[in-house]
Each structure stands twice: as C-alpha cells, then as structure tokens.
Amino acid sequence: MNTPQESSKRSQGDFPFSKTLILIGFMGAGKTSAASCLAERFALQVIETDQEIVLREGMSIPEIFSTHGETYFRDRETEVFRDLKESGPVIVSAGGGAVLRDENVKYMKANGVIVLLTASPAAILERVRDNRDRPLLNGKMNEEYISALMEKRRARYEEVADHIIDTTGKTIPEVCDLIISAFHT
Ligand code: S3P
C-alpha cells in the first residue's frame, strides 16, 4: 500500500491555486479532460457547466437549444456561474461560449483564476467530429467553420484569461502538468 507520500493523489493542501480554477476555451480545447485530471490529482470536485445545466433542466444540451433556444441556454449558464460563490475551491470546466457574456466573466473573476486552453482548428475538429452534443457545430463540422468561429472569439478568450495553455499535440497529463506549472512561474 502507498504511504501518503508515495500516493499520486495529492491532498487539497497541495492545490497550487488558492481559488477555484476555471478552464475556458473553445469546444474541444480539452477543458473536460483537463478538469477531471486536475480533480483526480487534487481530490477536488469538478463543476462542468454544461453538465450542471443538463442536470438542472433534465434535458440534453441539443434538446435545450432546440426546445428553448440559445438565449435560454445562456441564461441557465449564467445561473451556474452566479452560483459559483456557493461552492468552495473547485475546478470549473466552462462551456465554450460562457466568456461571451460580461456577467459570467464578472462571476468568474470574483470566484476564481481563469486558464484558457487553446488548440489548432485541425486538432479541435479531430476531437469533436464524432460528437453530436454541440448544437453550434451540427451541420458545420469542418475546419473552416471552426477556424472562423475561433477567430471571432479569440480576443475575448485572451482578454479574460489569466494563463493560456496550448493543448495541441499534448496528452491530458501533459496539459494537466502545464496548468499546474503555470501557477509556479
Ligand atoms: C458552446 C460550447 C459547449 C456548450 C454549448 C455552446 C459554445 O460547451 O456550452 O454547446 O458556445 O462554444 P463545450 O465547450 O464544453 O463543448
């Protein structure tokens, strides 16, 4: 059996971030994977904003979009960010469009440190192409569209971020390590 020192799972005391860590970035940038890797390493809870909305609404993201529309989804997303103050330090994996609303960013800044994950459009396409849970990409699953939407959002992502990490060609543990080391430099 591992002694506590040998165990790969560290305790919350070793968590290098004093506040909640919020992962932002385009769809397929690796937020979900990095969040679960960090949560596993530091024994912390993950709040995946999309998943939280699905739980609260009892519907999938595509169903929410088709039944109620995007604005309704965005309003639910804002509620999740508003509720962040109720949780202790956690890892948040934010839906890709969450930074577009000033109100969401206000709650993010008030409650956490923000890390932007990026990837090339080709890498993004590779990761999302077989997934049908992203209404914004349905029928537009190609590199040109992804690249154009990414460009449209790039400045906003960068202005909001405290740290930026490119995940292109990296494994999940590598991304996880890079996020942790960003806080030691
Ligand atoms: C969206 C990203 C999705 C989800 C919704 C809209 C976006 O989350 O919130 O489909 O506007 O970029 P992921 O970034 O987790 O895929």
Written account of the structure:
This protein is an alpha/beta fold and about 180 residues long. The protein has a single domain (about 20-180), classed as Rossmann fold. Helix content is about 50%, strand content about 10%. It is built from 8 helices and 5 strands. It has helices at about 30-40, 50-55, 60-70, 70-80, 100-110, 120-130, 145-160, 170-180; strands at about 20-25, 45-50, 90-95, 110-120, 165. The protein has a 5-stranded parallel sheet, sandwiched between helices. The longest helix is centred in the last third of the chain and has 18 residues, at about 145-160. It starts with 19 loop residues before the first strand and ends with a helix. Shikimate-3-phosphate binds near residues 31, 61 and 96.
- Tell me the total number of β-strands: 5
Instruction: Give me the Rg, rounded.
Output: 16 Å
CATH architectural type: 3-Layer(aba) Sandwich
Bound molecules: shikimate-3-phosphate
Number of helices: 8
How many structural domains can be distinguished in the coordinates? 1
Largest sheet: 5 strands, parallel
Low-confidence stretches: 1-13
Helix content: 40-55%
Beta-strand percentage range = 5-15%
Keywords:
single chain; 185 residues; alpha/beta; Rossmann fold; 5-stranded parallel beta sheet; 8 helices; 48% helix; 12% strand; disordered N terminus; binds shikimate-3-phosphate
Short description:
This protein is an alpha/beta fold.
Write the layout of secondary structure elements.
Elements: E1 20-24, H1 31-42, E2 46-48, H2 49-57, H3 61-68, H4 70-82, E3 91-93, H5 102-111, E4 112-118, H6 121-128, H7 143-160, E5 163-166, H8 172-182
Parallel strand pairs: 1-3, 1-4, 2-3, 4-5
Helix pairs in contact: 1-8, 2-4, 3-4, 4-5, 6-7
The structure holds shikimate-3-phosphate (S3P).
Residues 27, 31, 50, 61, 95-97, 134-136 line the site of shikimate-3-phosphate (S3P).
